[in-house]
Each structure stands twice: as structure tokens, then as C-alpha cells.
């Protein structure tokens, strides 16, 4: 379980994240939603130790992240940021093999390669595994990064806007894979996501943030309804149930 | 660009290099070596060959490390102020300690080139507009500023001739007793190889490194220390060899990607072959006179560099 206790972060005088306390359940998909500048990405980066927090505590499975070695954390929690625009020319297979770094420090054993192969197979990248990242489409690249995180074999996987710049088909593909990773492999996934319909259709829990504070957290039913969405986004959003999915209509 | 082509090429060129020069020594003489021919070989030809190989290998490798750490294909010791800062360091060592030993000069040059490179990396952090071509331009400007300070003091203290000798790479002055400093590069290159995977991860950015549990700052600093040390050693013994750290890694990267562990041997070999080829060319073109390595590499290198730049446009890289 990830426990966030009274965590705050300030840039200058502005609180980006203010006194946030949440608990994230194991084996579920939790989505962070909210308007731009709500502090979603900052919170995600703090949970994954990419940026430091000003106050509060973050505990992962009983271990305070500031007191845990970075290399040990790398075996427990992984993060993909929205702008993984890597200029280094690597093949998919090479990239995925770097996911084993926390375990092997670069000298991969047979077992490490087994994880690499499995991750590539899981993301269906076998046919293109020797292609360079810069030869891939956006969707393929995103799948390659997720394969790397899979090879990293962490219980917690954090993704910052994984659907950024993806078309509908690839967005659905990624979300389905994430769902599968939770249901089949028992991963715990936390995503920052803008499209509330994807959050509604694929996540178990939603944490809604606004101005650095948690407005509301709960199940889909508790969050995806017109009054709550009004509170989060300051606009009236109609919610319809289509095939048991709650769909938000916010275009007019 | 396969190792199985590069290695024979290197051996053939290396062998040829030993027997090209004003003093006529043929391979057949090896079986019946007269005293003066043996001396020429041991005092001049062999040291020259060794220094060509070490300089070619180490300069290409530090270019590659710099490109990964700065995440820019066009950053190298000559386009990031490293070489200029090292030269400034040598000048300072000459001004302050008039009788500095080569090792002392190297240490001062090292401190300066490390500082210069760190300043460049800091500028890199601050620059918002991270265009691939813009960054090395900033580096070149920075290098020129350092360079002009060097020239100013060099004129003031009558050291301008010394300074211009480091400006221009030249292997013809290499003889036994004057190049041994270069051996310091060998363990550094080995360290680079041992840390290759970590440099590649660092090349994917700080966040990426932290995610994999790598101490990003420590690796970047280690890389910059290797770069600064090798730059100082090479500038003191051979001088500046322009473009080398830029074109060799770029050519290898085109064919084999950027996985450092995989491409380091290629880069090293191609660097050595290229410098050796340019040196031999420089020795035969106006035989019995010589064109310095700085010029031959500069001419051929700038051509290749232009090609790389244009190709980058064509492929939208």
C-alpha cells in the first residue's frame, strides 16, 4: 500500500500540492484526475521520489521513501513520465533490458533476459524488438516504455499521462494492457490522466485534485457524477451510463 | 563499419605507419636492423604510432560520453569549451609555475577543463531552447570566450607560440620521453567501458536514471572527470584534434545506435583507424614534408560533419 501523509510542495510561494493525504490500494488502478495545474503530476513525482517533498511523509509497504535506498525503491516502484523523449538511439530490446538495471547493475543474467523476453512478449513487441525507438510510432514507443517498466518488475507502476499524443486506438490498447497487468499480474497502477472517460472506464479508484488539494476520492460511482464533477472542474458535465460504463459528456 | 573490417584496417595502417617517414626503413630491415634505424623506430616511429592510437581512441570515446551526458549529438570536447578551458589551464600553469613538469601542467589543465565543462553543463541546464544545433553553438561561443582570454594573456606574457602549438594537433613532434603522459588515458578508457551502461542510462535523463535507482549526479560527474582528464592529457601531448570527438561517435551511432557498452569498441577502433589514416595521409601528401594532423582531420572531419548535419535535416532527426 502507498500511504501519502500530509504531503506538501511549494514552488516559490505557491503551494502546488498542499497537505495531501491519500492511501492507494494494492492491486488496483488508481487515477489522478483534475484540471491543469492541480498538482497531479507533482504528487506522482513525489511518490516516485523524482522530486522531493517539502513536508509530510510517503510510505510504501511500510517503508518511508526518504529512508529507503534508491536502488531498492527501483525494485518496488517504477515511473514513466509524460515526456520520455529520449534522444539516445536504442532498440526496443536494449531499452527493455535497462529495466533490469536495479537487479543486475548492467550485467544481465539469464534470468534477467527471461524477464526482458517476457516483457517484450507481453507487450507484443517481438516482431519489432530490434527496431530503434526513433523508428517507432507513438503507440509503439509507449508500449516499449511500458515493457521496460514490466521488466523492471515492480509492484507499483506510476504513469504520468500515458495516453499523451496517442490516437484513440492506441489509447484503448494501452489502457487495456494496464487493466490486464492489474488483473493478471497483480500490479498496482497509478496514472495521471486527463481524459475522464478513460479514467471512468478503466480505473478502480479515482483521486480528484484541484489547486493542490484532494477534492474527493473514491470509486467510479462516487466521483463520476454531475455534482462531484462540477466541484472538480467548475463546469456542468452530463453523465450517461452506456454498457455499464459511466460516460461524461462535456463537449457542449 | 563492422569490427571485422576495422580491425584488419587498423593493423595494416599501423604497420604502414611504422615505415613511412623521411628515414627510409622497410619492413625487410626488421630482420637486420642497423643501430640508427632501430633508434628511429624506437624513439620516433613507435611512440608516434602509440600516441596516434591512444589519442584517436580516447578522444572518440570522450566525445561519445559527452554526447550521451549532454543528450546532444553535436556536443564534444571541441564544441563545449573543454579543450579551450584545458588550453587556458596550460597557459595558467606556465604563467604561475614557470618550470611546471608535464604532470603539473596536466593537473592544472585538468582542473580548468573540468571547470569549463561544468560551466557548459550548467549553461545547458539553463538554456530553455534545446535545439540540437543551438546547444553546440553556445558551446563554441563559450569556448571562444575562454580562448580569447587565453590569447590575451598569452600575448601579454609572450607565450603566444606555446599556445598556438596546442591549438594545432601535431604528431610530428612526438618522440620518446614526450608522449608518455598519454598512457594515463588507458585506465580512463577502461573505466569508461566499465561504466558504459550507467552512462547510457544517464543519457536518458535524470528522471529516467532515478527511476532505475541510478545516482545520476555521480555518474555525470564521473563522466565529466574522465572527459576533462583525457582532454588535458591529449592537449598537452598532441594538441587539439578538431571534430574527432564529434564525427566518430556520430558515424558509429548511425549504424549501431547508442547503447554505449555495445558501441564503445566500434568507436574506439574507428577513432584509431581514422586518425591513423589522416596522419599517414598528412605524411605522404607533400613528402618529405608533413601536414599536421590538426589540418588533415580538420579538413576531412569538417566535410563529414557537414554531411552529418545535412543528413540530419533530410531525415528530420
From TrEMBL, chain A:
The keyword Membrane applies. It is found in: Cell membrane. One of its GO terms (cellular component) is plasma membrane. It comes from the Bacteria. One of its GO terms (molecular function) is ATP binding. It is a peripheral membrane protein. The keyword Lyase does not apply. It holds the Pfam family ABC_tran. This is Iron complex transport system ATP-binding protein. It comes from Brevibacillus fulvus.
TrEMBL record, chain B:
InterPro entries: ABC_BtuC-like (IPR037294), ABC_transptr_permease_BtuC (IPR000522). The keyword Transmembrane helix applies. It comes from the Bacteria. GO terms for cellular component: plasma membrane. Gene3D superfamilies: ABC transporter involved in vitamin B12 uptake, BtuC (1.10.3470.10). GO terms for molecular function: transmembrane transporter activity. The chain crosses the membrane at residues 45-66, 103-121, 133-155, 181-202, 222-251, 263-285, 291-310. Keywords: Cell membrane, Ion transport, Iron, Iron transport, Membrane, Transmembrane, Transmembrane helix, Transport. It is a multi-pass membrane protein. Pfam families: FecCD. CDD domains: TM_ABC_iron-siderophores_like. One of its GO terms (biological process) is siderophore-iron import into cell. It is found in: Cell membrane. PANTHER family: FERRIC ENTEROBACTIN TRANSPORT SYSTEM PERMEASE PROTEIN, PETROBACTIN IMPORT SYSTEM PERMEASE PROTEIN YCLN. Belongs to the binding-protein-dependent transport system permease family. FecCD subfamily. This is Iron complex transport system permease protein. The lineage of its organism: Bacteria, Bacillati, Bacillota, Bacilli, Bacillales.
